[in-house]
Amino acid sequence: MEKHHILGATLPALALMASAAAAQEFLYETKVGFPDFGFMEAPGTYNGPVFVLKDDFPTEVPKLDPEVEAILKMDFVKDPLSYVMAVRDYAFKGNIHGGDVADDFFLQNNAAGIDWYHVPWQHWGTLGREGYHGLTREGPLSAQVLAPSQSQSSSAYAVGFYNGPGGFTIGQVWPSADQGPDLAYMIAAMEKGQAFPEGTVVGKFLFTVLGEDQVPWLTNPLQWQAYMYTCDVPGNGRCPSDLTNAPRSTQMVNLLQMDVMIKDSRASEAAGWVFGTFAYNGLAPEQSEYAKLYGEACAGIEGPGKNWCNLVPVGVMWGNDPDNNATFINSKPTKTVINPDLKETWINADPGLPAMHLGFNSRLNGPADNPTSSCMSCHSTGQVASISPIMPWLPPTSLPIPANGEAASAEWMRWFRNFRDGEAFDEGKAISMDFSMQLTKSIENYLEYRGKDQAGNFAINYWSDHTAQPISRGAEMPTN
């Protein structure tokens, strides 16, 4: 497959060329394909580097990178820490350049020759991609959900990426920027039991405008610029429910979390996926056993890029422990509460890790995620159409949140069941997107856009007797 990311230039030459405002664009986007982003400072007001969607998807499943082959030989049950650290460090390889962190993770410029890709059609709608780094607006960060000192609320902003095997599947669904999604591959995959090939790796970074005055472990931050909603900056009032006319402005945002997913067929009760999540911890001393444990991949990196290694593992998940239905929700964490009865989740017990709320009954979830959920339960709702909401208490199911100590109902536990590969959350009523919320959202965005553009409706919205729900990473929990 042709690579567009260096075009024969050496990396030092690229660094020099990137100092010219327009250089990045013609190096990184030789073919104008899908839209790159939806919101940005006006041209002329800003002429620096911008986010470029990586969408030259492979037309055949590529050979696995050696790092992924090694990961698939590791035992995520017996040694989950080494497994998830190897995944994080694979995502880092060639994407961190050691200089200004604003230059990191432009996927076209991977210095190790590793191909990564973005999901298209994330630019559209009020939550769509901004132009500095392709961040989309994600779920709310309610007061005290990150730390007891957090008195202000905001929203997370995030960008995700898939390695070569994952890029192949994205390209099957989105074969051309000139046409809509092709669902035939995903329909066939439900029968054969695998849409994303073995060895697919997904990474996602989440950022917040909140700083160390609100969340102490966000000290010594890793920062990017983001063209975000001004109302998400504390002190500017609550954001309206309809963001159509809400103003945006350029702000500095702090790295908060990293999520990873790995297609590993040994995780047979999680549709072949292993989930991992990391929290940023700027309190970690640079010279310590703690730093040595989590920072080996950055040992050769000088400058602010070292701070990527302040992403330390919260845990790993390879199943939903469906029989564990006792309710414990730690919505305002003062300590990380580990549930020893969970057999398909590992939580990092390192005392240096800041207090995490985790998920329902201490299943794995990251700091930006909702404490009534879990990594697996959220992603299991990735389907077209989005019949069931991402969490059981959201409409249209609107189940009451069980109280701590109460046994959750069978209806509630439908979100915490295990899945075979290719199984849709609402089987027989929807097409599984193989746990990819980004693919689900991209198709949802396209349908909404085309419906408005052509003043029409799509039969897909009538596939079941349930109203399809717009997906999002989360929502504020009801207060009663």
Number of strands: 11
**How many separate helices?**
10
- Anisotropy-based shape: globular
The fraction of residues assigned to DSSP E strands is: 5-15%
User: Helix proportion of residues, in percent?
Assistant: 10-25%
Radius of gyration: 21 Å
Work out the count of structural domains. Answer: 1
Alpha-carbon distance between the termini? 55 Å
Class by SSE composition: alpha+beta
Mean pLDDT: 91
Indicate the low-confidence ranges by residue numbers: 1-23
The helix/strand order is HHHHEEEHHEEEEHEEHEHEH
**Biggest pleated sheet:** 9 strands, antiparallel
What does this structure look like?
It is a single chain. The chain is of the alpha+beta class and 480 residues long. The protein has one domain. It is 18% helix and 15% strand. The protein has ten helices and eleven strands. The N and C termini lie far apart (55 Å).
